[in-house]
Amino acid sequence: MRVVLAEWRKLRRPTLLLGTLGAALFFTGLTTTFLYLMIDSEQGNSDRGRQVGREVLNLASGSVFGFASVGGLLGIIALCVFAAQTAQEYTYGTLRNLLVRQPGRIRILLGKLIAMKLFALIMVGIAALVSISLSYFLSDRAKVSTDLWFTSEGIHAIGQTILNVAISVIYFGIVGMVLGLLLRSPISAISFGVLWLLIIENLIGAVKPVTLDWMPGSQLSIIAQGGSPEVSYSHALTLGTLYVFAGAVVATVLFSRRDVAN
Amino acid sequence: MYSLAISVKDLSKKYDSTLAVSHANFEVPLGTICGFVGPNGAGKTTTIRMLLGLITPTGGTAEILGESINHPDRYLSKVGALIEGPAFYPALSGEENLKVLATLGGYPIERVSELIKTVGLDGRGGSKYKTYSLGMKQRLGIAAALLPRPQVLILDEPTNGLDPEGIQEVRDLLKKLASEGTTVFVSSHLLSELELISEYIVMLRKGEVVFAGSMQDLLMQQQPIILVKTESQTDLHKIVEIAEGDGHKATIRSEVAHIEGPAEWAGVLNKKAFEAGILLTQLSPQLPNLEETFFEMTGDRS
User: Which CATH architecture has domain B4-220?
Assistant: First the structure.
């Protein structure tokens, strides 16, 4: 608990908290707005030029379609925050202070993870609220019916999507934390993570689409969307969990045994 | 019950083929100030990191307050440390940085403002750490080390970046803490400072302990020195010949003859110089000091 509170003192500083929320709300707003304002555009209104029509948005799950689409980007933000917060302990040399005050290395790691999870959940909660509100306000203009959005089925869809996005964002965050522990530099960890998830996976996927059924970043984004036409939700969740678990085990073993010599 | 604050037995650390610390043995009694000296790269920081459980020894063992360094959780709550300079979060204020550590260690938050005053940072505690001068950063590092009201305080170069006034304040603070029963284990390059405050000394050279014991014992091992200056350089060489003729080791450094010998022999030398028609402009017997001894024992004049 002490580790969580100590970590929270660092996370709550206005530049980090407001900066992260600002980025999350920017992407959420942009994705949701495009979804409704470009509903009739031939160039598509969703990610990778996909066309999402009124028949989809009219459904009970229509209110959270925009939010589910931005899940991957929220995950990238979480990855950057988790990676920076972990790796900076090495670059600033502050890890030695933490370990002198709390020698239990696993406790340090768990406490940091819990605090950062809370931070990510706040981001997800606010992003969900903004996306659903924006969808509601733009639905009229896009001639989308909201009749089913707030029925019991609609509320269930909202809850399910928030849960999926939260799982996805936390998994992305853990990947960031693992990279931070392995590379011990915020710039290297963030560059590697973002480069892999946004560029390398997509390049490989463009050449051989079947690889996207197995790539880690792809699985985590699909979890946020609750499954995709190509990959089922359960496949993405199982594989994503395996990737995150394996990475976390390797990083934890390294962290608990490695000398702190900087 | 333990009587030693720190006890190190055969402690070693090897990095690949480099032996950073080699079979170190020393003891630090409770309630004393112990200086930890050695040239750069001698293994001081590696030893300190091993004592704090940050790096694992490749051989030997050590105990702090009677607890093995294999279980740092058993003693670190009673230990304060400043390791290889201060390290804090630049975007947080000095106070916030201390609060992070106080929260982590479970110490009362009120202690933070008390410590900010103790180390002379009052008025600047709310400023961001990145705006601090080197001296202020150092003071914050000392404050962090004092957070747990430590029984053992381990400080690595605590006076780096401090002005003479700051150095004196740190010296007084360490003396005060020792008088209250805190054991202080301090490494520093300011040997004259260490000589003023340390009762014990541990000297490292190339990873090996070359001396560990009381300061008095260390200085007693060394010969007293007589410093001599003459009007001319030729006369200085004659003085060296006289000294060597009487069986005393003598060298000339920076136009001063350094002659090993007891203070009483200075009178004999003065008489012999007068008889040889040499006018002495300086004749000062000196007790050996830590700096001279350090150079003598470590062979380091850098």
Answer: 3-Layer(aba) Sandwich (3.40)
